[in-house]
Structure formats: structure tokens, C-alpha cells
Specification:
Number of domains: 1
Structural class: mainly beta
Largest sheet: 7 strands, mixed
CATH class: Alpha Beta
Number of helices: 2
Order of helices and strands: EEEEHEEEH
Oligomer: single chain
CATH architecture: Alpha-Beta Complex
Helix content: 10-25%
Shape: globular
């Protein structure tokens, strides 16, 4: 740092978080515990919200859940939800999959990073999500609907049309089933 330049305050310091490996200075990383995130305004949010999706596949089947809450209440989708403060994307995928499906999963690879933006009748942004969808394999548990899911099923590729998935969701599911 040049002479006379003040050191950044802790509030101004940008940190990157990883599950393993040293930080940029060669020191071991410390991972703060995930804290309960306060309720976030999902409807008409001030900023886009970061979420994850779990593309849980086995052979030619994928896990789908029927949403219990808005904005997609009653619709079929892949399991997922918002990332909590201090949580990595992969940690969020593992947590959301377990909460919504009863399955313990291992996220393997990022399949797609996408946006879901829902406008209201006046053109205002009612919902705005940035979602990281991960291909996952099951490492334990048994399929059961939980928390935000009204139902959970193993859907065969040949049955996907029955679930009336949004086009973007269907495309991502097919990418995952094709082995990405």
C-alpha cells in the first residue's frame, strides 16, 4: 500500500468465501457460521434476490416439487430457494434440497445461472431472482415433500409434459438429464 494511504476499514474490506483452501495471503480460511437471515421482502424487492435450484437426477428421472408459496404457488419446479447470509451457493443447494425433498444431495456442477423476473400489471418488478441451478446426486434420505413443497416426485423424462413446467425450467431440466 503506498505511503499515506489509509488501511481499509473492516466494513470496506471485500472478502471471498470458500469451503476449503487458503485465502489470498496463504492463511487458512475461516468460515463464519450461517446466521438466520431476517425476513426478506420477496415481493417488490429493492434488489434482485439470489437463489439456488437443485437439479436432482437419477438415470432419466428428476425430482420436481409443487410450490407452496408465491410467486409460483401450485406450479411444479425444481427444489430450491434463497441463499442465506454467510452461506455458499452449494451449502444453500444442500439445505434447500433437504428442506424441500428430504434428500441429502451433493451438488456436482453449475448447470445454469439465470434470472426470473415477474412484472405486475403496471410494469413494476414484483419479483426478481438470480438463480444458480446445480446438477446434484442423491447421497441419502428419502423423497418426501417438506417446508415450501406441497408435493415432491421423481418425474421421468417421458412424463415431464404432465407437469407444465415453465419453458426455462424445462430447458434446464433437460440439460441436466442429458448429462450437462
Amino acid at each position: 500500500m503506498p505511503a499515506g494511504t489509509p488501511a481499509p476499514s473492516p466494513a470496506m474490506t471485500c472478502r471471498s468465501r470458500s469451503v476449503s483452501g487458503p485465502n489470498v495471503h496463504g492463511s487458512p480460511r475461516t468460515t463464519p457460521p450461517v446466521k438466520k437471515t431476517p425476513d426478506i421482502r420477496r415481493e417488490y424487492p429493492p434488489v434482485p434476490l439470489v437463489g439456488v435450484g437443485a437439479l436432482i437426477v437419477n438415470n432419466d428421472r428428476v425430482v420436481l416439487v409443487r410450490r407452496r408459496r408465491k410467486p409460483a404457488q401450485g406450479e411444479w419446479s425444481i427444489p430450491g430457494g434463497l441463499v442465506k447470509l454467510g452461506e455458499t451457493l452449494k451449502e444453500a443447494v444442500i439445505r434447500e434440497a433437504l428442506e424441500e425433498t428430504g434428500l441429502n444431495v451433493e451438488p456436482r456442477v453449475l448447470v445454469e445461472l439465470l434470472e426470473r423476473i415477474f412484472a405486475d400489471d403496471r410494469g413494476g418488478i414484483r419479483y426478481h431472482y438470480v438463480i444458480a441451478d446445480y446438477l446434484c446426486t442423491v447421497v441419502g434420505g428419502s423423497l418426501t415433500a417438506g417446508s415450501d413443497a406441497a408435493a415432491a416426485v421423481w418425474a421421468d423424462r417421458s412424463e415431464l409434459h404432465w407437469y407444465a413446467l415453465p419453458a426455462v425450467t424445462l430447458r434446464v431440466v433437460l440439460d441436466a438429464l442429458d448429462g450437462y
